[in-house]
Amino acid sequence: MDNSETLFLIQNLTHQAINPMNGVIGTLDNLVDGTVPEHKREQRLKKARSQLEYTVSLIRNLSYFAEYASGNKEFISSSKISTTVIPQAIIESAQFFQDQGVNAPVKIELLNRHVQNCIKGDPNLFKQVVINLIDNGVKYGKLGSVLEIKNWIQKRSNDLIITFSGQSEPFSDSDNIFDIGSRAKSARDRTSSGSGLGLHICKLIVENAFNGSIKASHTSSGETIFEIRIPNGFKK
Predict the structure, then answer these.
(1) Does the pLDDT value for residue 129 go beyond 90?
(2) Which of 15, 90, 152, 156 sees the fewest Cβ atoms within 10 Å?
(3) Which structural domain range is residue 60 located in?
(4) Which residues contact residue 2 at a Cβ distance below 8 angstroms, ignoring those fewer than 6 apart?
(5) Average pLDDT of the residues of the chain
(6) Mean pLDDT lowest for which of 30-44, 162-176, 183-197?
(7) C-beta of residue 178 within 8 angstroms of C-beta of residue 200
(8) Each residue of 151-170: pLDDT tens digit?
(9) pLDDT attached to residue 7
(10) Residue 114's domain is classified under what CATH number?
(11) What span, in angstroms and rounded, lies between the C-alpha atoms of 90 and 160?
């Protein structure tokens, strides 16, 4: 990245971090001064928590990227090895978006959630990937659509495959959406939010922490599909 691109990225990320934190400050002020009626206090607290969680996720992305960009590529690949239970990790990741409730523009649906497929690797790193992909699906999904998440172990290769699919803004191969700072033109036209960092972080983590791969496609019917493939999947 050249200096102008770096400056743009920093400005964008700073803007994204400041907005939710200002929202939390405003909520706390209103709770303290009694502006928020009693029956809405729990709802406002949940919203504030969600804003804090989003900011933490953004800062975590920045931390991963800063370590990797500094040349410390072992930071991701040398994370303590443990077992990630896929449905559990996905459910915990989706909870970051639970406060949207019935008013969510996009519903999140995890299929075959009772099949305990697993991979070797750090659950926290995997959850960061899932959070980024859900955030992307909710942010750019069509109003009223469903983001479906599936996972299964391919018998032929023993690879664990996870897909995130839903109706969303179109993109083409030329958009290079996994490149740092990249956002599809349709996404830029729709919203100014989005750092152009989340999908790049997904690629770094999947490839370096799990020795896997991630790809994305957009069909003529308007469906966007992200597919993660990780070797040596197994059942708990």
Answers:
(1) yes
(2) 156
(3) 3-69
(4) none
(5) 82
(6) 183-197
(7) yes
(8) 999 999 999 999 999 999 88
(9) 62
(10) 3.30.565.10
(11) 14
Contacts of 74 (CB under 8 A, 6+ apart): none
Number of domains composing the chain: 2
pTM tops 0.85, yes or no: no
**Using the 8-state DSSP alphabet, how is residue 141 labeled?**
B
CA atoms within 13 A on the CB side of 62: 16
Nearest alpha-carbon partner for 95 in 108, 105, 112, 106:
108
Q: Helix 123-140 vs helix 41-69: angle between axes, to the nearest 10 degrees?
A: 120
Counting DSSP H helices and E strands in the chain, the numbers are 7, 8
Domain identity same for 155 and 46: no
Please state whether beta strands 145-153 and 106-110 pair in parallel, antiparallel, or not at all (unpaired): parallel
Report the candidate in 175, 96, 173, 174 with the shortest Cα–Cα distance to residue 138: 96
The rounded percent of the chain whose pLDDT value lies above 70 is: 76
Q: How many CB atoms lie within 10 A of CB 194?
A: 19
Which has the higher per-residue pLDDT, 19 or 29?
29
Closest CA to 95 of 60, 137, 139, 127: 127
Judged against a pLDDT cut of 60, whether residue 187 lies above it is answered with: no
Among 69, 100, 119, the domain-final residue is 69
Asked whether the beta carbons of 90 and 164 are under 8 A apart, the reply is no
CA 173 → CA 95, 195, 215, distances in Å?
31, 19, 11
pLDDT digits over 77-111, tens only? 656 668 999 999 999 888 877 655 556 689 999 99
Report whether 153 contacts 117 (CB < 8 A).
Answer: yes
Which of 54, 69, 84 terminates a domain? The answer is 69
